[in-house]
Design goal:
single chain; mainly alpha; rod-shaped
Length: about 280
């Protein structure tokens, strides 16, 4: 009698291994993805580095232009202050000679005393060319990377502000002295007008004060009563005040000039120099 057929599926052959599902190999994809990330990051870093380099180069160029312009301003200001120091030195010497004449009228010829009385009315107001320094402080100070230059600019502007305040205060007193001196020395009025208003046209001066008095020798005369001048207590006080003013102004001009020179020295250490001749 034959064996009954099995009701279930045939059992697998134990010699044949069972097939397994194919697993996804992610490692090649990961290597590719990592390489892409490296390329992107490297590109970004290179772009940032180039951008930073270009920005630094532009900032350095801008700083160089500013500092060169600052050097030009400093050279002009130093030149004008040097002239102001010389002018006030002469004014101080002239007023000192006049003060000596009050003590000893025979110390000089009356014509010299008359000339000194006109020349003592001399007020030097140098124009400070500091526009670049002020622009840097107000808007673009970050352009200047050197702390020593920044400090020099702040120090210079601080002293310039004090100098200008002193000038405004002193000039009003100077005009008062000059107006008091005019009755003694008519030529003093001309010099005040020249210094205050910058009148360069001799015709304009002549229209205001009359023609220049010229002597027989062709030289400008200084008409005044020298004896009355030397005997006047008020005239002595005026000249003494002008002497003190000349001393103070010379000192203030010299102090500011020193600050300008210090700023020029700081720029020179950066290789930025400019003399007044080139600045002109």
């Amino acid at each position: 009698m034959p064996d009954p057929s099995p009701s279930g599926p045939p059992s697998p052959d134990p010699a044949t291994p069972a097939s397994r599902p194919r697993r996804w190999d992610w490692r090649p994809k990961a290597r590719w993805f990592a390489a892409e990330i490296v390329v992107v990051v490297a590109g970004v870093l290179i772009a940032l580095a180039l951008n930073a380099w270009w920005g630094a180069r532009q900032s350095a160029a801008k700083e160089r232009v500013y500092l060169q312009q600052l050097a030009t301003d400093l050279a002009l200001t130093a030149d004008r202050l040097e002239g102001a120091v010389e002018s006030m030195t002469r004014a101080r010497a002239t007023s000192a000679r006049l003060l000596s004449a009050f003590s000893d009228p025979d110390v000089a010829h009356p014509d010299s005393i008359a000339r000194w009385s006109a020349q003592v009315v001399w007020y030097s107001r140098p124009s400070l060319s500091l526009g670049v320094a002020r622009a840097l402080v107000s808007t673009d100070l970050d352009v200047v990377r050197d702390d020593s230059i920044r400090t020099a600019i702040f120090d210079l502007l601080n002293h310039a502000e004090q100098h200008e305040a002193f000038d405004r205060e002193t000039f009003s007193a100077f005009l008062d002295y000059s107006n008091q001196l005019r009755p003694f020395s008519p030529m003093a009025g001309r010099l005040v007008t020249f210094r205050d208003l910058g009148v360069l046209d001799s015709a304009a001066l002549a229209e205001t004060f009359g023609p220049l008095p010229v002597g027989a020798d062709g030289q400008v005369a200084y008409p005044m009563d020298v004896e009355a001048f030397l005997q006047s207590r008020n005239a002595y006080v005026i000249v003494d005040g002008l002497f003190d003013m000349a001393v103070d102004l010379r000192l203030f001009h010299a102090r500011l000039l020193q600050r300008v020179r210090q700023a020029q020295g700081v720029l020179a250490r950066r290789g930025i120099t400019l003399d007044a001749q080139v600045a002109r």
